[in-house]
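Hey team,

Filing this mostly as a record. A colleague (T.K.) asked me to run one chain through the structure pipeline before their review meeting, and I want the input and output archived in the tracker in case anyone asks later how it was produced. No errors, nothing strange. Just documentation.

Input sequence:
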Amino acid sequence: MITLAGGTGLVGKTLTEALVRDGEQVRVLTRDPNAAAAAFGDVTVEIVGVDFDDPATLRSAFTGSDKALMSYGTSDRQVRDEIALIDAAIGAEVPYLVNLSVGGARGEHVDSANVLQWHTEIDEYLAATGVAATVVRPTTFTDFMVKLAAKFVQSDAWGGLGGAGRVALIDTRDVARVFEVILTDDPQRHAGKVYDISGPTAVTMDELADYISAASGTRVEYHARNEPQQRAVLQSAGVRELLVDILIGIDALTRNDVYAVPSPTVFDLTGHAPRSVKDWVQEHISLFSAPAA
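Output structure:
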């Protein structure tokens, strides 16, 4: 039994469906079982409701699992809730854990972004438990960055603090494929390892704007701003304050070239080259023809 904490998320849903196709028994933990059931439709998956304020529900949810994935969505409760998941899985005697972290965690740029700080704390906690575990650290998701751009492009308001920095954005489907390989493989092959994964090519935000322009037939620009200007734009668009801080941090990682060097790990683990940003934009160009959010 493979238990997925975060099996309904952007990476998790794709992973869950792939594991089921592989013939694996999959259990998905969720705070909203009805929504999860609707999301998976006819996919044969066990859905278990959990309450992060009730540790007993977490431990029982992991009972009988051979492997477990920790893939919790970004929130201000992330550290507390992921540590609770780790404790529950260990308490239920799950022998092998796989954790979705983030590129740069436990590195020299931790203070650049709150998500790095959170994942650093989680990764250090997991390492200290001594349980057999694998940590996967992707760069920024292509899906996230391009969908964010789409929300602002039609009003010519897309921009930020990325400057001329480069980032090897990664498609979440490639992240899911990496997890699929790890979770269906012999744990001894991956336990104790940390995998940094990325897309095939590092791009600037101006280059991403060029890809969108070429695919849409409309000139798109990425407007350079300082931090107060970017905060004002995001706040005026109704972005909640926690997400504003996250986006400012992601821009800092881009500006400082934290994800500027592509990693070969996706190909090494899966045998397939990761999808490029340019191809992702062309595949999802309809995002830029819909009414602006």
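Quick notes for T.K.: The CA atoms of residues 250 and 264 lie 22 Å apart. The chain has two domains: 2-139+172-196, 146-166+200-261+275-288.
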